[in-house]
Amino acid sequence: MDLLFLGTSAGVPTKARNVSATALIETSGSHWYLVDCGEGTQHRLLHTPLSIRDLRAIFITHVHGDHCFGLPGLLASAGMSGRTQPLELILPAALHDWVRQGLVASDTFLPFELRLLAVEELVQWRSEAVQVTTVQLSHRVPSVGFVFTELNPEPRLDVQRLAAEGIPRGPLWGDLAKGLAVQHDGQLLHGSDYLRASRPARRVIVCGDNDNPELLADAANGADVLVHEATFTQAVVERTGVTFGHSTAAAVARFAETVGVRNLVLTHFSARYQGDPRRTPNIDNVRDEALAQYSGKLILAQDLQRFRIGRDGSLEPVGCHGERV
Description:
Structural class: alpha/beta
Number of strands: 19
CATH architecture of the largest domain: 4-Layer Sandwich
Shape: globular
Number of helices: 9
């Protein structure tokens, strides 16, 4: 599984950072999922190997524009790219009519079925590769985090069960190993029933805006990666007296240390934190504040950075096209 950051700025874009969008890519390297779709997300995609035709689903954390204003353009481009497979869009119910009306008003025809699902009603969403659930967060509007968990990673035949049920070795085992259904002694056997995971499933949490990281305590327990906003530093909040429903780097890092998160990725930085270390404040202030609270692996996401989540739960940078760096 890979994470590829398409937008890491909060509220407004900067010259170096677009607004919120994060891609999670299946181990196969082609199919992928999009969490949030700020304005300009499709432009960022042009700098990656990702194809809109391979997009399995879009998940929107909350209604604010820096997390969803890129949807109309992305959907229109998906249609013009030749996509024909249905696309599921999991987003707040308040945005459903906005999406529909925008497509109608702009005379946009989609040659694929667009399935709108209300995130408020989501219990779980599944593909062949992952299961997705939500965590309710705290913001000025309802906001969620999405928990991605691998399903049956690197499955292998349950040979003990096959032997116990008297299913003979040979072509039947081969077909079951491919996940196929086979006939044996008048019974229909499903390959999925005879495959078991060969390693623990990886789990990744990608959060929307949130001013209370402790709400993630249960979900973050045992997670391999937590992607969380760090819009401000504590120094800025103390000076201004406002958070606008966002977290500080210190608060997120302190929480991650307490629950034992192995890999913490901070994103959604206020535009005031520029890359030039000669300016104040700058992005190094965010890093320093987090490092003072957290001893695990800390990453401050940058646009178009790609990271691979190893089988052991490690998080390492790779090139945008997947090459290890």
